[in-house]
Here is the input.
Amino acid sequence: MSAEAAHPGAASRRRGRTRLDLRRLGRVALLGPASRDRLPDAIGHVADAHRAHHPDADLSILHRAYVLAESSHRGQMRKSGEPYITHPLAVTLILAELGAETTTLTAALLHDTVEDTDVTLDQVRTGFGEEVCFLVDGVTKLEKVDYGAAAEPETFRKMLVATGNDVRVMSIKLADRLHNMRTLTVMRPEKQTRIARVTRDVLIPLAERLGVQALKTELEDLVFAILHPEEYEHTRALIAADAAAGDPLEAIAEGVRKVLREAGLAAEVLVRPRHFVSVHRTRLKRGELRGTDFGRLLVLVTEDADCYGVLGELHTCFTPVISEFKDFIAAPKFNLYQSLHTAVASPDGEVAEVLIRTHRMHKVAEAGVVALGNPYAPTEGAEPAVEDERADPTRPGWLSRLLEWQESTPDPDTFWTSLRADLAQDREITVFRSDGAALGLPAGASCVDAAYAQHGEAAHRCIGARVNGRLATLSTVLSDGDTVQLLLAHDIGSGPSPEWLDHARTPAARIAITHWLSAHPQDDPPAPGGRTPEPRPEAAPLAPAIDSLLPRSAENAVVDLPDATVRLAGCCTPVPPDAVTGFAVRGGVVTVHREECPAAARMRARGREPVGVRWLATGDCRVTLVAESFGRPRLLADLTEAIATAGAAVVSATVEPPSEQRVRHTYTLQLPDAAGLPALMRAMREVPGVYDVSRAQRPATA
Here is the structure.
């Protein structure tokens, strides 16, 4: 599998077959100008590597694919001077070493035929089946002649959409990019830099999300060498010096083997060298490197329970560094990764990091989704899948989120920028909805992101949230395992505030908010006749407040203007039997204000003609009340109990930070009958500590 995982005495290595080590080859290529002999009988090496993982595989289709690829590419040369067929062979060999199944290898052999030769997709479909044809089409680039500068982003969009239907598409692309990066030195320096940046920003994060660490780490090292040559040379010198000085980890590994033998635990203990970028990051983190910082110990066992047995023995017989312990078996990473991480100090004070996992976990840790074989093949006893529907093997659904937001970004530049920003979020959290369903979000996501992930465009009406049962603003950053209940306003005309963009981390949320704000500009043009129109109601702020609940229709208010839509103003929230007046605004809408509202006074001063309004009946209503009180324990609970006893429902609530032992509570309430408002306000005033309850009255721009 890899130099970090393999060991000269590993039981998995079969006798009589030269095991090609992907990371060793890449590492040797980076460390110095070692000559690479051409592979003898290249397709035979592919067959041997494939049979090592799939002993019963039918190789006839691979031979047919090789014949077609070799004949199609015959006469074509790579920029390195090698026959072009060496490239699809190398890509196929990379995937075979990782354990890919036959269909993936067949498509890998043919992945450039449609793009670079006269072979058509119909020929591939006829000769090798629909699945191989789909995979080949998924990795085929779009022509620059047709797409111009948008060819690269649109190619990645096409590839991601295909990956949404079959993750094996991206496996082939990653192997393809790895071999191209290994041979990138023949390109012009500026082209090397451009390709390395795209690899860093897009393909390496995708390799991380798909769990293909064997490809990800080598890609990181190759990019590191191109984009940061000075740091790379310094790191290479450090690794070479450490290799000459001897490896202190081997002595610790022998001590671990002895402890586990005495405990009766069957385990392989291997020294796993760190790759270049890992050594560089460790140096930046710790400053001066210790001898044990150039690698880690890898302990492989058979059963999950043995992992914890090994952990117990290590923590008993060595001094554990508790801050370094992480359990990714009980809580796997979003990319399928499972392992126990710990660090122990030997008797002489050397500290070694230790990874503990089963052989199966190790295979998945190295090869990710490639180790799943065909993730879509039906398993015995499993229910048949719905037609045209495939389960997402990436589990939390980051790929589904990506596919959803890309549909809203037809512009290639916006898509390309959003894709890089999304992939830069390299950690994932899982939060739970109130109904128990899980939402996968990037680390650092807020309630704004959760709202759009759960409700889509309906999240425009979000006015607040409950996080783990407590009221929270939409700007609240979520943590792994939080429970989130999103609160939506009834008014379909509500919309997001521009400041939501400051708290949105997911492209889906940012794109939806940006689209809404573009369609509802803040600055409206002057109305006919020179009048200044009343601005649209303020968009919902991040704290639940009355702004987010309006405008709304008022069925119990009648105005003296035929066919007008009646809405209650958000600045003064009038309810029966308030004395009210109305003002006509755009779209045949009359906004109703309380007579004493400052906004109504300003509109009169500007010459706006009032419209007569009368209450048709009391009926149900919504009102905002402000309770002034002295701070004390259980005050919020007692106030909400008084509100509930009066028969009112809390739509939203905010509590301002205490000032001089005084607290201001603002409640937006739904009353079944406006006539009950005076009794409700009296009940709230009777709560101990409350010294005043009043109707909300805030200035409004006319």
